From TrEMBL:
Residues 4-64 form the HTH tetR-type domain. Residues 27-46 bind DNA. This is TetR/AcrR family transcriptional regulator. The lineage of its organism: Bacteria, Pseudomonadati, Bacteroidota, Cytophagia, Cytophagales. One of its GO terms (molecular function) is DNA binding.
Length: 194
């Protein structure tokens, strides 16, 4: 197993600490100490704590998007594409609980406003394209695109909370994911389309 380089080690350590202590409760000195680097080294790679938080978010979102791009099948009907996006988002979240929790934490923090618009567009391109094409094809209800996305993402977030808080056995998780996907699909799908 190869050792993490210093920036990776800093980000990995920051993730663990942010999930436990939050952004404000985690001083950079603690991150540096637990990562085995000096404060000067941490600030060499990340000029500010805000920059570190945003870099971690960008890295995690990049990993999630790469995973989804590899897993979500581009063939099949629209509903199957949505099912795959839903299912694999949850599977990644359950396999990367700290990272997914960090994403949720980040979205409700002022740090989200520090992410450049270009990065936000890049991160959401696959999702937005799928939703836009489905709405344009009248497969989805004629609601604002951002509302359709938020409604769907909130179902993923809620189901993640349920599956982790209730400690649902692995053998039952897939059934819960399928059940909640069907509920979500009913909520966003145009009932006039087959």
């Amino acid at each position: 197993m190869s050792k993490l380089n210093k920036p990776e080690k800093i980000l990995s350590t920051a993730l663990k600490l942010f999930v436990v202590y939050g952004f404000h409760g985690t001083p950079t000195s603690k991150i540096a100490s637990e990562a085995g680097v000096s404060n000067g080294t941490l600030f060499h790679y990340f000029k500010t704590k805000d920059e570190l938080v945003v870099a971690l978010y960008t890295a995690i979102k990049g990993e999630l998007n790469q995973y989804l791009a590899e897993k979500v099948n581009e063939t099949g009907d629209v509903k199957e594409k949505f099912r795959n996006l839903f299912r694999y988002s949850l599977e990644w979240a359950l396999e990367n609980r700290d990272a997914f929790y960090f994403i949720q934490q980040f979205h409700f923090s002022p740090h989200l406003g520090l992410v450049p618009d270009e990065e936000i567009r890049k991160q959401s391109e696959m999702h937005r394209t799928l939703f836009q094409d489905a709405r344009d094809g009248k497969v989805l209800k004629p609601l604002p695109l951002d509302l359709l996305i938020i409604l769907s993402v909130n179902q993923i977030n809620g189901l993640f909370q349920y599956l982790t808080a209730q400690t649902v056995p692995i053998e039952n998780q897939q059934q819960r994911i399928n059940d909640v996907f069907e509920l979500t699909w009913t909520m966003i799908a145009n009932p006039e389309k087959p």
